Amino acid sequence: MYLATISSENGAVPVAVDQARGVAAVRDVIPGAPHTTMGVIEQVASDEFVSAVRSAPDSVFRPLDGARFEAPYRHPHKIWGIGLNYVEHAADLTESVPDEPASFMKGDHTIIGAEEPIPIPAQSERVTAEAELGLVMGRHCYGVDEGSALEHVWGVCTVLDQTTEDILARNPRFLTRSKNFPGFFSFGPAIVPLSEVGPLADLEVSTLLNGEVHRKNRVALMRYSPEFLVAFHSQVMPFFPGDLLSTGTPGAAHIRAGDRAGCVIPGVGELSNPVTGA
């Protein structure tokens, strides 16, 4: 069961997906619910969403075939990314895992959804795609401890985070620039309520390149757990409903025009994007 956004004649529509029954407009499941997926996250708790979908009549669902999924939403308050959070990935970059989380921000202009192209910038000769577990915040979160951190998370999603590694290699201070080209943050299409996922530590994240697993690892082997990342960064800044926290990659794949990048997290979903030239 998950929350998503589909294209319709009337624009983007937030939907509830039940794999056994199909897809239903959220407003048919929860009368009076907001008209946007961001609004649903802001106003409908994930447990309320799950309960409503389970109790909804079969008549409001239709077959999933033919549904065109978009990015769940395009304008979160912020996108917060984490670097070097798996020891093995840090070794790929001849880096050590930092003593505190390494983080960066991305603008909402970077957002794309499933099947939208990732464009390779003309000024870069080495772009990588990084599969990650994304956290979708559901409540205002500031100054929380690790034990209560996940109470503020609405759900999780698959993410592809892109980087111009050649630009970053010139100077680590170029991190923000290397992460902020258009199309450099794909997420969705599913936002799975936290209660539907089970322990996050048990999840396995895979970076795919042209349909083949390039690198995979378990969340349990992160240097900093998802709950630690939420708590740590909430001491710096508030998180707002709909904010995205991308928790780090098990491995980055070098992508070129004509390739297809992907992220697979069993129990959460699959995300795939074609790669195009400048």
What share of residues are in beta strands?
25-35%
**CATH architecture descriptor text of the largest domain:** Alpha-Beta Complex
Name given to the CATH homologous superfamily of the largest domain: Fumarylacetoacetase-like, C-terminal domain
Secondary-structure content class: alpha+beta
Q: What percent of the residues sit in helical stretches (DSSP H or I)? A: 10-25%
Main beta sheet strand tally, sense and closure: 9 strands, mixed
Which series of helices and strands comes N to C?
A: EEEHHHEHEEEEEHHEEEEHEEEE
* Count, helices: 7
Summed over residues and divided by their number, the pLDDT gives a mean of: 95
Instruction: List the domain count as a whole number.
Output: 2
Number of strands: 17
Task: Give the CATH class of the largest domain.
Answer: Alpha Beta
Runs in which pLDDT lies below 50 for 5 or more consecutive residues are: none
Radius of gyration of CA atoms, rounded to a whole number? 18 Å
